[in-house]
Amino acid sequence: MTTPPTNRQRFLDQPIDFAPLPAQAFPVWHAELAAGDDAALLDFCRAARTAGRWLVTLWTSVDGGSHRPAAAPLLPDPADAANTATPQSAALHVALDLAEGLVWLMLPLPALSGATFPDLAPIFPSAARLQRAAFDLTGVGPASGDSRPWLRHANWPADWFPLAPDTLAAPAPRFATHTEDYAFVRVEGEGVHEIPVGPIHAGVIEPGHFRFSVVGELVLRLEERLGWKHRGIAQRFARLSLAGTGATAAAKLAGRIAGDSTVAWAWAFCQAAEAIAAQVAPGGFAVPPRALLLRALLLERERVAAHLADLGALGNDAAFGFGLMEFLRLRENWLRTQADIFGHRLLMDGVVPGGVARDLTADDAARLRAECATLAGELLKLHAIYDDHAGLQDRLLTTGRVTPALAAQLGLIGLPGRASLQARDLRCRGDHAPWPALAPQMVVHPNGDVAARVLQRFAEIDESLRLIGRILDQLASTEGDCRALWPEHLPTAASGFGWVEGWRGDVFVALATGADGHIRRCHTHDPSWHNWPVLEHAVIGNIVADFPLINKSFNLSYAGVDS
Amino acid sequence: MTIYAFATQLLTQLLELVIALALAPLLSGWVAVCRARLQKRCPPPPLLPYHTLLKLFRKDVLLAHNASSLFRVAPYIIFSCMALASAIVPTLSTELLFAPAADAIALVGLFALARVFIALAGMDVGTAFGSLGARREMLIGFLAEPALLMVFFTASIISGSTSLATIVGTLAHHEFVIYPSLAFAGVAFTMVSLAENGRVPVDNPSTHLELTMIHEAMILEYSGRHLALIEWAASLKLFAYSCLGIALFFPFGVAESTGPGALAVAGVFLVGKLAFGGFVLALIETLNAKMRVFRTPEFLGTAFLLAVLAILVHLLLEGGR
């Protein structure tokens, strides 16, 4: 065995040598395992789990075949395609969250047809659905475990894979819609019956199917079925390029994965794209510090807007309409300011590759500061009303409880995680610019019920308002451009990562490019992937009528997960 | 009874029915306006319920494939029950044709009949929500009905009759007598009314969350004129309950003749009292959050206890007069 080079590092006492990935926005460590070395992967994952670290995401990639470069015509000549076909290769990618940074493990898989990878769900429960989705998209699935489709809804054939090279080479086909026969887990017993809810609901809300097994009002089991908002975003990315104005178009698409987290998504995507751009001329391309501060400002404003909407909606779900109207009013004022100053109510397309779309004038900064002070005052009053309302508190307290132990076991992350004592926040790690200079404070709550998630939101708004103040302070003393010029040439076959703490939790983007900066694979991961399965556990033992309140207190993303 | 008396009583009776049918949607609209104002929202037009009814009557009925004839008949039965109930409550005058038949117990029976049919219709199509709503409705019903009966009994003991006309007539003449028992009964009646009409804190009439619905869950499958009849019936129920509350606890101003002048005065009183009652309802709905489904038995149990207390207070303090 050879001694590893000096810049290589081992983690968790596992015999895998990781190399740091250059030019990333935060530390990323990469290791490519030997093909078929399932044991090394499983051992590493187990060690990470034992050390209390968590899976960020996993995805599969299939390359080669007749994958069309971005510049090629839409309709390749079949004979031509056959001539240029290269052997296909597949790989499993696992991203883990270690104290030292992000760890990216790659396991090459032997052959494409029928390729499988080891099942990680026994180690990380939330991996189960990621694996099912990976199979639906690429045809490479787990060797064991749950094999039901997740994203595929009988609207495309079981042997057609959206991200397979052959699919990407051909024009998009149309398939007849079929009725799906999906095997929900049945609960047997005296008096047990099922309540199917959705995907079309009585109100105008996002589509998701919930299958309750109940006895009377008591929920015994809940099973979710998502995927109705699958828009083929990963497939769309594979037809885009980072070259020239393509990067802006791709960032625009990333900002539409989930509209309520558009800043987080756009920022994460831009981090990944900028990491790739920086690899062509190290040190030659960097996002200006002022742009980073402005991005942080946008992200915190997005967080405040989302929390305001949730606090109102939580009141409304308990039929406390007064709360809804008050919080909607506050949010509306907040959004109008954003439309005035940043050009979009929800801040879409504010974050662009290389920086931000608009700079902030001193007058606008003063206006934002004043708005924060007004909001803080109003929130104080509303917080007191929510706290003192006996009827509302009766609905919130002890409802939908996720104990810290359960949260740790199932890997609850983001805002609901912090409300169950899971102290994870990317902003509070020392290695994600520009946060260390802003010194964000993490808020956690031990109770893990709906009331705790309400308090968590109040506390996080307070912290965001404080952060906005600090950002504005620093902006005043940070001169410079707010956008770097996008490079003309991009490296061939590079990887970039984006990882941003959105208001739901950490949003993750893994980007791989081929020749001329065309996107080979863009994997986007919403924090809700980890939290949806925990919601199923949070409802157990509650009554059916409390589900909407519990669901709203998590407020997980449909669009981000289905994408 | 002379022919003249018969004719005027019949006319008054018909007038009451027409007023109930015409004013009930307005009351619902008024409550919505008050609610919106109290929440600092832009209020919907008060006449919106009429437009909704008109819209629904014009629409086609869409029936589930497995809907039985019960499903189709239920809206008419429910509507008839509620129309009859609002007609026999002496709101304008106690001199009504149906007064001898307008018994408090018969009234509770009418409400129960409508409840049974709406619950059966909810279960008829076999959707999960219909059954869920029906189950919750029956839970509320079997707790609310005894409490409502006890409220009526308090008033009956005071007036020595279960006939609504007699009760109202007796109470209306006792302006200067204070009945502590009626205060208890009044609170109990308010609680029962909130539960029976599907208002906050028991049910939320404006919710879109199907899992929390009670009344709305049972009628999710209805459309067109069926839905219009059920919506109208719900307005009539609210109207009937409001009139009952007025008749039992604020009967002043009710005409005891059938003269046009007396009726006009009574009508003005009625509209004023209804407007005030609607505002109070909106206030209650704004100040409260909806309680957990399993808190409803406690809530209605309290209402029942208060109604029993009312009878005890009457027997102890008011000497059973």
Automatic annotation (TrEMBL), chain A:
The keyword Transport does not apply. This is Ni,Fe-hydrogenase III large subunit. Keywords: Oxidoreductase. It comes from the Bacteria. One of its GO terms (molecular function) is oxidoreductase activity, acting on NAD(P)H. Gene3D superfamilies: Cytochrome-c3 Hydrogenase, chain B (1.10.645.10). PANTHER family: FORMATE HYDROGENLYASE SUBUNIT 5-RELATED, HYDROGENASE-4 COMPONENT G. InterPro entries: ComplexI_49kDa-like, NADH_Q_OxRdtase_suD, NADH_quin_OxRdtase_su_C/D-like, NiFe-Hase_large. It holds the Pfam family Complex1_49kDa. Residues 325-477 form the NADH-quinone oxidoreductase subunit D domain.
TrEMBL record, chain B:
It is found in: Membrane. Keywords: Lyase, Membrane, Transmembrane, Transmembrane helix. Pfam families: NADHdh. One of its GO terms (cellular component) is plasma membrane. The keyword Lipid biosynthesis does not apply. Its main location: membrane. It is a multi-pass membrane protein. The chain crosses the membrane at residues 14-33, 73-92, 104-126, 147-171, 177-195, 227-250, 262-287, 299-317. The keyword Transmembrane applies. One of its GO terms (molecular function) is lyase activity. PANTHER family: FORMATE HYDROGENLYASE SUBUNIT 4, FORMATE HYDROGENLYASE SUBUNIT 4-RELATED. This is Formate hydrogenlyase subunit 4. It comes from Rhodocyclus tenuis (Rhodospirillum tenue).
